[in-house]
Design goal:
The protein has 746 residues and is an alpha/beta fold. It contains 32 helices and 15 strands. The chain folds into five domains: 101 residues, Arc Repressor Mutant, subunit A, CATH 1.10.10; 189 residues, Tex N-terminal region-like; 122 residues, 2-Layer Sandwich (Nucleotidyltransferase, domain 5), CATH 3.30.420; 117 residues, DNA polymerase, domain 1, CATH 1.10.150; 110 residues, OB fold (Dihydrolipoamide Acetyltransferase, E2P) (Beta Barrel), CATH 2.40.50. It has a five-stranded mixed sheet, sandwiched between helices. It has a five-stranded mixed beta barrel with strand order 11-12-13-15-14. Keywords: Coiled coil.
Length: 746
Amino acid sequence: MNYSHKIAEELQVKNQQVQATIDLLDGGATVPFISRYRKEVTGSLDEVQVATVRDRIQQLRDLDKRKEAIVKSIEEQGKMTPELQKAILEAETMARLEDIYLPYKPKRRTKATIAREKGLEPLAEIIFKQESLELESLATEYLNAEKEVTSVEEALQGARDIIAEWINEDAGLREKMRQLFLKEGFFRSRVIPGKEQEAIKYKDYFDWSEPIHSAPSHRVLAMRRGEKELFLLLDVCPEEADAIALIERQILINAENTSVSQVKLAIKDAYKRLLKPSMETEVRLITKKKADEEAIKVFAENLRQLLLGAPLGEKAVMAIDPGFRTGCKLVCLGPQGQLLHYEAIFPHEPQRRTTEAAMTVRGLVEKFDIQAIAIGNGTAGRETEAFVKGIGLSKSVIVTMVNESGASIYSASEVAREEFPDLDLTVRGAVSIGRRLMDPLAELVKIDPKSIGVGQYQHDVDQSALKNALDDTVISAVNGVGVEVNTASKQLLTYVSGLGPVLAQNIVDYRNQHGPFTSRSQLLQVPRLGEKAYEQAAGFLRIRQGMNPLDRSAVHPERYELVERMAKDLGTTVSELMQSDSLRNRINLKNYLSDSVGLPTLQDILEELSKPGRDPREQFEVFQFQEGVNHLEDLKRGMKLPGIVTNITAFGAFVDIGVHQDGLVHLSHLADRFVKDPNEIVQVNQKVIVTVLDVDIPRKRIGLSMKADPFAERGKKMDKNSKSERKEEPQGTMAEKLAMLKGKFR
């Protein structure tokens, strides 16, 4: 079925844009390639829109497959009717489709099935008409010792079981009940009796209630985690009276007689035994999916910002993985990240070989012409920074802290073992810290994104959806920046459009055997890298020292001939065209329009010619924490300190202020105005100035603010201490904040 019209309406774009995108995707084109090099075909749909088309068409095709399976099942039962088939084909959601199929779905023997076997369905039909009858007399006619119907009550109970199943399988009623749960229902959590002390981190959810429709994702996931860990009991439902009233309206209860009394009993049974459990399961899945999507969105955006952090570039770097007892692991790296030297120094307690360590560092800085020193921000990080800054190095040597989250994961990984099979884990970790300073993107792609420390409940969300979203984010970042094919690792090449692990390895093997690539076209000699993969990948791969100057740009090889024509028309060379603003200003783009090349592509080409292979990331800036503030005990209320944003969540941002424990800037303290989304104000790796609000040393909690005068309104709000204010951002988030502050998500 053609779903382009539907998707076009949802995206508010033209049908032909969506259909063209679908055709490209079906032909094997990737999202980065389509959004960058097929703008004329798609009407310049951006990367997000192309990815949305990809995901939505898959959802709709999955829906089609399910419809086919359901139609086949009902036809095999001999129960298909034109009306039923029409309803199935017109169903727009999986939930609606399953509601229609429910009466025909093969099921285990139910109470209603047993009642039908006892011949009680005619009695149920009579009662369901709600007419005034002498039920006892009528029910007597259905007594049958052989079928184990020996009393009037047994007969009526069987009839009610059948009616309850009819009510449960009413597709229209189920949809209305689903909406009632979603719009009027509540999350209600309470502690399991006897587990109050064990479940103390969930204290704020011991007796908690809030509407399903407005519960934020982080609280939904927190309550579900508490339930999973067997600390909380969680109900997800509306008021029972509202649900019963909805059913009575749906089946038109409009009288009072003995039949109606039986129907009302069946309604209560249908709700409690069938509808409520079924709807609660569905709504749990719906709200979980929504919470997952929001948490994954937060994680993906944080990851994007981290991956696109400013690179130091190709400089000789010394990296130090700090430590006390076991010393500091020190490595020296060349401009391309190659390991030149490693050893351990012991500038701190208990060895305190400070003079020896200082001589070692100064000697290595001179020997390898070190231009920057990267120090991990973990244990002993600030002390090591102070030591290095105090040994009299040239001011031209940059000394900076680097977030080492995930470095230990990398050091124990197969990737690290493959690269440095004979080195200790801590040495590998130091190498990762140094390379992270030089090029965060190239190094972080080697680590499972879930281990980088920028997520929110990443272990609770749908792992498949999380992986897909994070893969999309990494692919977008890698292709947005571009990859130098002669220095890139296998891991980095894997994320290039059109490649993947096998072709990435083949490129590295070819490079090792034949030396550096001298042209993009040479990629076609790589085993298994055919025309299609080349088309998808070539524009994102750079060759800085290539024979063709265009090979270091994002101009696709399919447009080289066009650029050469531009140069020829101006009586110059491509190289001169790339170097001269005046020559490029003489190009009249309208002269190069064609059926396949429009203004968007021509403008992209012109921009690339002016800044070939430009790095879209920001320039690196040295950052320094406040001197003398190294530990929690050094913090005082009201202090203003420099910090770096390390993680963004739905309820605020975490900031590293150099005391080995991130502080929380709550949503309400991110700005002097109301903030709904923290990403409006901050980004991961952003340098900020914060004010210390509170310090709880025993629990290792730091409250921070980015307001101009954070204490001005705070007193008023605390004086009010109103129930409604607490409800808006409940104490229920404190367990999550505490968990994150303790490093659970880092």
